[in-house]
Amino acid sequence: MGQIQINSVYNTDLAMRNIFVSPPEPPADFLLYDPTNAIYIGKTKLLAMPFYWTYMRTTNPHIAVVGISGSGKSYFIKTFLLRASYIWGANAFIIDWAGEYKEWVKQSGGKVLSMGKGAFLNLLDLGGMRPYDRIKQVVRSLEILTDIGKYPEQRRLTEQALEKCYLVAGFKMDSFKQVDSLGKELTPPTLKDVQRHLDELLESGTYEFPAELENAIYRVKQFTKEGQDYFAQQSTIKLEEVLNSGLVDFDVSGLPDEVFRGLAALSMLQFIKEKMRMEGWAHTKGIKLFVVLDEAWKIAKDDNSDAVMIVREGRKYQFSLIVGSQNPTDISENIFSNVGTTFIFRVKFERYLNFLQNTLNFSDYIRHDVSSFGVGECAINMAFQTSLRFSETFLLDKVDGEEPLIEYFLKLDSVFEEMGSDDMAKVVSFEKEELRRRLRMYGLSDSHIEEISTQFDKKNRHLDVVNFVILLEKYGLPRSNITSFLKDMRIEDSTLINIFSKADFKRLDIGDRDISQVIMEEE
Question: Is there a single domain that holds both residue 517 and residue 424?
């Protein structure tokens, strides 16, 4: 006769025994729904089931992607877009705030449009709209990006000048079709025409509030100055070509500030939205266009942004918005609450975790994992079309990308030994391409970035953190930027103090010798 024996079993082991409990993952028929017509993402963490994403079972095709820098967020987006083009032949339009996608787009055979580096976008292009509608959009963009909304008279003067310029150019304000007497398409005015009209009004001396008029002129002049007239010349960007050219990177990193970048992004979103409405509903399945809006908090957060309108209407027109951010609270609630799928990579700040957990209603078990994810690991929340008896949030072991997800590692052994600590993590990791992107943003040259990458590669992708700091300072990177980068890698303030102290002592010891050679000799 058999005996009953009582054993201790971990919760995770028990969860895998689905005879006793249902694990916190969707069943196989949801994870593997129509795999030949869906995008493979990776395997689930608990049961190692392949997960294929499809818009067909979610409430809408829109996606939010959140996670700290270096967590694998942009790597996921790149993988997703490539596979979407293979499976559905979908086009993708990336509004690239920091220029981080352009090299990848070139390598993938896509097209790069660089605002501030040769590409121009006439702010008064109609894109198939009526002039009255376009004027409203231009003014709404200025209200989102500047304080013109606080000055009604300046707002009114700007609107009137825009209308006057369209009329002078022969446009009918309430018509979609704009042609001359010979049937030739009319050329739209530019912001330089708007400034000229306001200048003439000021010179006439007939306007009773000259100070308001001068301020209105000053606002327009910001976009018409020589060398900064990116929105005041006839467009070199053709909307029809852009939205049907496969993979397109709209690089706005070359523009002078957030207002210029925001204006470029909002204008393209407005043109895309109108194009979406004009094309109307289609009988064919799939997604026509994925629009990627990554780290564009200024326009992703405002409820009046056209990104919100695309989220509300995109499903019926087969357009999908992918919005990404390190800070989920920087995404408008109207967007975040209406996306069909949320991919959550590592999030470390408690207030962000609180926001995500309260919004998506996942368990403390999921929350704990999210705060300690490695590169490429993520949680996925899906709003399915039908009512369910299982959790809508589940864990993915790692995004399986189109190319290896290369990680670099910083070794902290020497620092912790000096601190007398044995219980702290002695290695931190981050994505190779994220490192290169961040260093480029900080102003390091490509040759310096290449040398730093070489140091990692020669040491099996592991580099001592003190040597890493010395290299960065050798190439002119200020400590404030280095500190910011290391803090993102989960290195605490007390450890940072010791890292910089050791770097100072070591630099004195090295003297004038070549730092790169010393690093190679020591390791």
Answer: yes
275 exposure class (CB count in 10 Å sphere: 0-12, 13-18, 19+): buried
Residue 309 — very low, low, confident or very high, per pLDDT cuts 50/70/90?
confident
Domain co-membership, 136 together with 194? yes
Q: How far apart are alpha carbons 224 and 230 in whole angstroms? A: 8
Give the position of tokens 């730093």: 452
pTM over 0.85: no
How many domains are there within the chain? Answer: 3
Contact 264, 237 (CB under 8 A): no
Contact (Cβ atoms closer than 8 angstroms) between residue 68 and residue 326: yes
Kindly report, residue by residue over 358-403, the tens digit of the pLDDT: 988 888 989 999 998 988 999 999 988 776 677 789 999 999 886 5
Q: Is residue 6 part of a domain?
A: no
Sheet order of strands, 341-344 included: 50-53, 39-44, 393-399, 378-382, 341-344, 63-66, 319-325, 289-294, 91-96, 247-251, 111-114
Give me the mean pLDDT over the 299-305 stretch.
82
Do the beta carbons of residue 344 and residue 379 sit within 8 Å?
A: yes
Domain that holds residue 358: 27-120+235-399
